[in-house]
Amino acid sequence: xxxxxxxxxxDAPAPTPAPGVPVRLAPAAPSLWRVIDRGGRVIGHLxxxxxxxxxxxxARRFHAxxxxxxxxxxxxxxxxxxxxxxxxx
Length: 89
Prior knowledge:
The chain has 1 helix and 6 strands, in the order E-E-E-E-E-E-H. It has 89 residues and is mainly β.
């Protein structure tokens, strides 16, 4: 698995609205977006990765105590990765 090349998808996926925990995506780097809750707080990162002919999405959260990112998982769907970030609080 590798990061997407600049000529592949770099537009933010559009998260499906979820009741109770709306989020939006803000660009952080090519193929990397901050997942922001309705209060404006960054709750994680979504990263697009190329795998074969498809795209997988990695969900990560920042763990303040260890000052490191925790890998939550990789998903074939951006919505699944975002849901993982939403509910890993």
